[in-house]
Design a protein that fits this description.
single chain, alpha/beta, 10 strands, 41% helix, 19% strand
Length: 264
């Protein structure tokens, strides 16, 4: 299934615009684009919302016919337990996370203990925990951790853009991660020379115009065949003013949806 994620609304929800959109506004916009899935990912207000606000947002998603996934950072068992409760409130079947949180950088041994503590509740609830590929943890180490634990409810959220900062090649990471992939973050990326031709900027670009060999990912991972959701997100630099930035953000979402739909 193709879905939208919070990073597709990064600027529209930020305090750099005059009227940031709410979570329910985003859900309505998702429905207006004929999308049936939304991943609430790294959305800070989620943890401060009251039980009533959570229930209202979950009700809005159900009324709109939108399936919800959740996303956070960190694997502290208490934190993952919180997100399992949120998953229950939203009827979410997947939680994306990362090994490290801003205040926690466990070793691989510590990470294994934490995950083994948290996973039985996820298994019992039928919720999958997908750990994202990113530059702070070598992909081979992430795969080794998942293989060591050996749970059907633990896998990878595949984001080949992140690994470039570790000098890992996206195609190799796609091939290594394919058997373990439970979720995909879909965006394109590219390098551009900085002003003065000294160094490069690595950032997002409109889908299909950058360096990401997405057809290779599709052939290798086979998301449609394996029922792996593809979540649209962007790395969009600020475009100089709110209107230009939001217009570009919306354009990139439209372009990415058209691209992904053309591959199914």
């Amino acid at each position: 299934m193709i879905g939208l994620g919070s990073y597709a609304y990064f600027w529209q929800q930020s305090d750099r615009v005059d009227e940031p959109v709410s979570l329910v506004d985003v859900l309505r916009d998702t429905r207006a684009q004929d999308v049936d899935l939304f991943q609430i990912c790294d959305y800070p207000p989620l943890l401060s919302m009251s039980a009533t606000e959570i229930a209202d947002a979950a009700s809005a998603a159900r009324d709109l016919g939108i399936e919800i996934e959740l996303g956070t950072k960190g694997i502290d068992p208490a934190h993952l337990e919180t997100f399992l409760r949120l998953a229950d409130a939203f009827d979410a079947r997947l939680v994306r996370s990362m090994l490290f949180a801003p205040d926690s950088r466990p070793s691989l041994e510590q990470a294994e203990r934490m995950l083994r503590t948290a996973l039985p509740a996820y298994e019992a609830a039928g919720v999958t925990l997908a750990l994202e590929t990113y530059e702070q943890v070598a992909t081979d180490d992430l795969i080794g951790l998942i293989e060591s634990i050996g749970s059907d409810r633990l896998g990878i959220c595949l984001d080949p853009a992140n690994v470039v900062a570790r000098l890992e090649t996206p195609q190799r990471v796609v091939e290594r991660c394919a058997p373990f992939t439970k979720n995909i973050h879909a965006k394109d990326f590219a390098f551009a020379r900085q002003d003065g031709w000294v160094g490069f900027t690595y950032s997002g670009t409109a889908m299909g115009t950058g360096l990401h060999d997405y057809p290779h990912l599709l052939r290798t991972v086979r998301p449609d065949e394996r029922h792996i959701n593809q979540i649209v997100e962007h790395w969009l630099p600020w475009q100089g003013d709110p209107e230009s930035t939001i217009t570009t953000e919306r354009d990139w979402t439209r372009i990415t949806l058209e691209y992904l739909r053309s591959t199914t």
